[in-house]
TrEMBL record:
<dbReference type="GO" id="GO:0003924">
    <property type="term" value="F:GTPase activity"/>
</dbReference>
<dbReference type="GO" id="GO:0070124">
    <property type="term" value="P:mitochondrial translational initiation"/>
</dbReference>
<dbReference type="GO" id="GO:0005737">
    <property type="term" value="C:cytoplasm"/>
</dbReference>
<comment type="function">
    <text>One of the essential components for the initiation of protein synthesis. Protects formylmethionyl-tRNA from spontaneous hydrolysis and promotes its binding to the 30S ribosomal subunits. Also involved in the hydrolysis of GTP during the formation of the 70S ribosomal complex.</text>
</comment>
<comment type="similarity">
    <text>Belongs to the TRAFAC class translation factor GTPase superfamily. Classic translation factor GTPase family. IF-2 subfamily.</text>
</comment>
<keyword id="KW-0496">Mitochondrion</keyword>
<dbReference type="GO" id="GO:0005739">
    <property type="term" value="C:mitochondrion"/>
</dbReference>
<keyword id="KW-0597">Phosphoprotein</keyword>
<dbReference type="GO" id="GO:0003743">
    <property type="term" value="F:translation initiation factor activity"/>
</dbReference>
<feature type="domain" description="Tr-type G">
    <location>
        <begin position="70"/>
        <end position="238"/>
    </location>
</feature>
<keyword id="KW-0396">Initiation factor</keyword>
<dbReference type="GO" id="GO:0005525">
    <property type="term" value="F:GTP binding"/>
</dbReference>
<dbReference type="GO" id="GO:0005654">
    <property type="term" value="C:nucleoplasm"/>
</dbReference>
<keyword id="KW-0547">Nucleotide-binding</keyword>
<keyword id="KW-0648">Protein biosynthesis</keyword>
<protein>
    <recommendedName>
        <fullName>Translation initiation factor IF-2, mitochondrial</fullName>
    </recommendedName>
</protein>
<comment type="subunit">
    <text>Monomer.</text>
</comment>
Amino acid sequence: DIDHVYEALMNTALDIDLLEPESPLDDVWIKEVLKKSGMKYKRTQVKQDKVRENKDAVRRPEADPAFLIPRWPVVTIMGHVDHGKTTLLDKLRKTQVAAMEAGGITQHIGAFLVSLPSGEKITFLDTPGHAAFSAMRARGAHLTDIIILVVAAEDGIMKQTVESIQHAQNAQVPIILAINKCDKPEADPERVKKELLTYDVVCEEYGGDIQAVHISALKGDNLMALVEATVALAEILELRGDPTGLVEAIVVESRTDKGKGPVTTAIIKRGTLRKGAVLVAGKSWAKVRLLFDENGKTINDACPSMPVEIIGWKDLPSAGDEILEVESEQRAREVVDWRKYAEEQEKLKEDSKVIGTKRKEHQDSHRRVREKLGSLTWKEREFIKYQEIKKQNIRHKEKTEDLNTLPIIIKGDVDGSVEAILNIIDTYDATDECKLDLIHFGVGDINENDINLAETFNGVVYGFSVNASKVIQQLAVKKGVRIKLHNIIYRLVEDLQEELSGKLTPSM
Ligand code: GDP
């Protein structure tokens, strides 16, 4: 409706092209709205992308290979439900804590680090596999270096096993196969490997390059072999990271801590994160106050592949959000403001699309009516209508009074203005409280026929940019018919609304 679009317009500086008219009729309508808003009708289009370039924070270009240093792998565990992902993660986490000093608290923060006696390290993502993985992929964030595919040896390939394989293949992330529950008597790991051939997952013994490890997550059997296989694959992948420059990271978990406030766990992709850094993520920003490792110990810096808890956020970013370091707090505010604004623009765009579709539907319905009547002259149409009206006269009169309807007659100066008003009226028709009953519409000054119709139906005659002669006005007074003349569409519409609400009250 007109007010909605008006509001949208007032909030819209960049996207005036949203209302790019589809027909000259829209032009009339939009011009009316703009007249109301006091804005100039200008069809400039500012490309949001251009603006974004200046206002949003973006990833830096790829680093010079000379700056890259080796980094350890980030691993996601995937597989069908109940095949043992959680058990495996728990075991790995506990092993890690046991390997360190006694009494380490295992806290779920979304990621953890396993350090081998050899000094090798692996970062495990500890978030519900598929959802987090998809969320990150959807945001274009590539975080996982290796996927450990857990398949229960007694169950074999199931629906989510296949999905996991597809995720891995689409993202081109290499797989290590963990055949779990091998402690069970009915376990059949060889069958699992054979079945996987169908999905292009070819284990080493079938001539492929997928390592398969038989484990029991429950008993902790062979977990070391799994970890070693992961390290071996990471070596082949020659993973490298850039420890210099502005930090880039990915949020893997986000929560509000009673003591610490908004906390995120992130994995560093690039740069070295230190206290005092200013970060943006989603529509939030942070001046880093504290950094913790997954055991809750404060740390001073975090390099690529490291999971780290970050304290200092103004709001809570979401899992999967990309973290980017910016030069200053002012810049962070600017970026966040811009993102909020851009999001609003997106919403408005959606809203306008909905409005646009609705209006199109109304226009179409009127177009159909006009086509039906199109071959007739105005006189013929009015005659036919008059005949019909005569027939239904009494019945209709009773009905209209019953149903809280407001019978109206619309006259306008040109076809376009009449149709514009009809479009708006259609939107009011949607509300059931009080119905507008369009008795007649047409182009030209108010005439005797209009007054007669209005008398018959106890209706009101609305004119847009048309006249009613003295004679007609006197006739109207004599017959008790009200004529309402307007030169601005929205005034006419407001008037209609008032009439409607007036109709509504007495009978309630
Ligand atoms: P998730 O849904 O993939 O996270 O699976 P869970 O880790 O929750 O495991 C599902 C069930 O399988 C639990 O009852 C586990 O105790 C059990 N389970 C997991 N790993 C093993 C294993 O290696 N051997 C046996 N016998 N049971 C296991």
